[in-house]
Amino acid sequence: GAGVSQSPRYKVTKRGQDVALRCDPISGHVSLYWYRQALGQGPEFLTYFNYEAQQDKSGLPNDRFSAERPEGSISTLTIQRTEQRDSAMYRCASSFSPYRGSNYGYTFGSGTRLTVV
Amino acid sequence: GQQVMQIPQYQHVQEGEDFTTYCNSSTTLSNIQWYKQRPGGHPVFLIQLVKSGEVKKQKRLTFQFGEAKKNSSLHITATQTTDVGTYFCAGRTSGSRLTFGEGTQLTVNP
User: Fold this and answer.
1) CA 20 to 30 Å from A114, out of A60, A91, A108, B96?
2) Phi, psi of B101 (to 5 degrees)
3) Can you tell me the distance from the alpha carbon of A32 to that of A71, in angstroms, rounded to the nearest whole number?
4) How close does chain A come to B29, measured CA to CA in Å?
5) Which pLDDT does position A28 carry in this prediction?
6) CA distance A75 to A24
């Protein structure tokens, strides 16, 4: 598609419920990243994929968080047994090349605003 | 772990004044990127700097990467109301993880 698409845009869920956040990256982009952004702060790294392989998941806060990208395109970030502290904007980004020397920046989606009540 | 710090946190300027934000890393970076996030929007990629001492310009914006590759700056000449937003630096060491700073929120009074 023309940009990175995330769904849903807004999600309100009750504490203890599981949620799945979806990211559809730009077609042909090799790398996909998940970040979490609190209000007034910079994006905080969660995890990233090259193609379908998860390269780094060290930013996931705990084992309630998981992510997958089974066919190297669409990715899902799942949060199990949600807690109020999980409330934040979850952003997905993609880039064309996985190589750190490349000159490709990240293209971010509009994000999913998650509110846990 | 790697930390990227930005100052100032907030900057208010009159239209036409210059603006500078500074970024410092606790570790040597392989490259640094700059992003702009408009109010209510998402971060948008501006530029990447790779070489020690590199300077790049985009119209009224000047980006610098320090000689030691641990600091960077963004300077805007003669700000306009369209420059309003939060400017983030993001540094990369090894691998592909990009660590973002906390951002500098710029407001421009017309």
Assistant:
1) B96
2) -80, 180
3) 12
4) 11
5) 87
6) 7
Nearest to B56 by CA among A35, A105, A3: A105
Mutate to test the interface with A, among B7, B97, B106 (most CBs of A within 10 A): B97
Distance CA B26, CA A79 (A): 31
3-state secondary structure of A51: coil
- Residues of chain B with Cβ-Cβ distance to A42 below 8 Å are 6, 88, 90, 100-103
What is the pLDDT, as a whole number, of residue A103?
60
| A61 in Cβ contact with A80 (< 8 Å) | no
| Chain A: residue whose CA lies nearest to B42 | A110
Question: What's the pLDDT at A71?
Answer: 94
Residue-wise pLDDT tens digits, A88-112: 999 999 998 756 555 679 999 999 9
How many A×B Cβ pairs under 8 Å? 66
| Residue range B37-88, pLDDT digits in tens | 999 999 999 999 999 999 999 999 999 999 999 999 999 999 999 999 999 9
